[in-house]
């Protein structure tokens, strides 16, 4: 007989022992602020149809969310994905609803539990059958499923160390051993992570003694009827046993077998014999109410180490008898008082030694040694377990007050910085917003390059690639290049008879200075030829001295090898966002400024304004921090002030002439009040450039006047490829306009 034992010992210490893919599934009930079961339907108007949504579903009941992560190459990324999906779900349910953070539900009645309103008739009948068989209350118990597939290189190395000739048979044998050992030592996880110490009054027909470690992981949880016993002695017998129970009517479907571990990767169990097991689903994790996501990073990594230790250990010799004993032991551990030490038969020495051996043999980092040390400490001190930590929070045989307080705390966290996507805050803000909307809509999402803001989105067979939030296949390659070059942009617009400012281009400081006699008495703008975010721009509404002009040129040349000097156009600057020939938003941008109060210096006023939670750095917040750099100080000086002067009450000083949000400006949404003639003009300009997504910057002296072809009443100072979207949505003033959902609707019209 081919052996599956002692393989890890044979591997080279440099083998990729940690290589694996992970997926998490989290169940959570929607409840009201009073802690009762929500009566509202699943928010499909925001979340898209459950018939195709890959990440946010309902489980048994309409009130039970199921959050499903895509496959991740590390536990860290799996948890991060769960964080993002939790964030989307938490902000897609009504704002007066909460996600219940405990595995055991709040106090509820059977008639309050609605079977999920599913479109699939079979799935609906299946759930109706479960309700009749087990009752609806048990179905409200929630938890987390931990999915793991060992990495391809690791699996190959283990296979080569074995005496198996078939990789498929080897994988089946390895996953079967892992499943058996998991069931054998399940009590270990129940002790550490059990977090279901009691049921609220009326949940069980007969009173159950509490507190315990985990009702969910005991025979009081959602388990099969007592007579259903499926053997794990071989894969063939496992498959045959389940099929026999289905044929006899003891199980309505194969998936009704509620084992703490499931084989996954094929539609039918019998397919595992021919095609092989792909991965394992571990179903025994209670929600950790002390963690916003229901499971901590430490738990994910400890369980990964635990699973590797199960591979290090030898397989069972008499699996049916041993697993029957293991089931009884787990039940005893689950139903013990949280502060009770483990019984003598729960001997942890073998599993602890195996975890130590894995760490030593493969030279794992100190982080794993620390995890093991924490496990050892928790085995010694039951109060360190999750159930032990919950004990002080039990009031009047209830955890409702605690659960409600945690749920509200986590709801408040979800709505903190709602412009950001939790876990992905270091990405560009417009990209975060697009990712949020894609996850909400039910588009599949893959981050191809996080630093480069490069995403893959797909629905069915339809794939789209998006960079920086709105750079897509809808724009041809040359258009962004043309818009990046301000000289080219001006020439294209001028040729189409659109109003643009007069000016000249220079490639050296000397050339620029030689131009001074021609502009010394004029209002001018000095700016880099190709730049974004308003960097390097100086504006002179009064004629500039030679010294100030030189300084402005130096600042512009620090951003680009070519510089434009243009006439200053008087009026108010507006940003028009054009998408697919339609103006979707108009923004008035007010240059970085402070208003005096007669008490604080300019420097102090800047600090006070920067304290606004909407302000941050590097375009990760809707508004940017106001700086006091060379440009700002030059601007201040022109108005007769220094940074340490106390500004008189009501006096406003501009710290920039350019009104870019990226240089500290304020954003005011004026979409609804802007005359349609200007919106149409901006859309025409974008069409003239051939741009799909475009920011059009217009200077308008009087926005109440109508723009015509003969008298446009405005000047275009710039077109922007890849225009920021967040500033239109999260404004300093005004209602704001959501752009990213419109981007997705244009890319995937079939989903609307």
List the helices and strands and how they pair.
Layout: H1 7-10, E1 20-32, H2 44-47, E2 56-58, E3 64-68, H3 75-90, E4 97-99, H4 121-134, E5 143-150, H5 152-161, H6 167-184, H7 186-193, H8 235-248, E6 261-264, H9 271-275, E7 279-286, H10 297-312, H11 319-334, H12 349-361, H13 366-380, H14 386-390, H15 400-414, H16 429-441, E8 444-449, E9 454-459, E10 462-467, H17 478-484, H18 486-495, E11 503-506, H19 509-514, H20 516-519, E12 524-528, E13 538-540, H21 546-557, E14 563-567, E15 572-579, E16 582-590, E17 593-595, H22 602-610, E18 615-616, E19 623-624, H23 630-638, E20 652-654, E21 666-669, H24 676-689, E22 693-700, E23 715-721, H25 726-729, H26 740-747
Parallel strand pairs: 18-19
Antiparallel strand pairs: 1-3, 1-4, 1-5, 2-3, 5-7, 6-7, 8-9, 9-10, 11-14, 12-13, 12-14, 15-16, 15-22, 16-21, 17-20, 22-23
